[in-house]
Amino acid sequence: MTAIRTTLRRVQEQPQSGRLTERPDIREAVEPRFGFILPYTVRGDILWVLRVYNARRHPMIWTDDDAI
After folding, report:
1. Rounded distance, CA 7 to CA 32, Å?
2. What is the CA radius of gyration of the chain?
3. pLDDT confidence bin for 64, thresholds 50/70/90
4. Please, are residues 29 and 11 in contact by the beta-carbon 8 Å criterion?
């Protein structure tokens, strides 16, 4: 959890630091130690993390089990 928090702090300080995605309004922060990906967008002064997933899994396959 600390590694994800560190990544989030970096993104909060430098929102443009995330890698680009196919959508111009969404970027991805990469947590390198454990391989987590955090897609996010910034609306006004608010950073919205859209999802947290492990890059070792298949993030593009969405199932009902993923919904909370």
Report:
1. 9
2. 12
3. low
4. yes
Residue extents of the structural domains in the chain: 2-58
- Neighbour count for residue 31 (Cβ, 10 Å): 19
How buried is residue 68: exposed, middle or buried, by Cβ count under 10 Å (0-12/13-18/19+)? exposed
Is a pLDDT exceeding 50 seen at residue 68?
A: no
Count Cα neighbours of 28 within 13 Å in the Cβ-side half-sphere. Answer: 17
Q: What is the pLDDT of residue 31?
A: 92
In contact, 3 and 31? CB cutoff 8 Å: yes
**DSSP state, residue 22:** S
- Phi then psi for residue 58, to 5 deg, are -100, 90
Measured CA to CA, the distance from residue 5 to residue 47 in angstroms comes to: 13
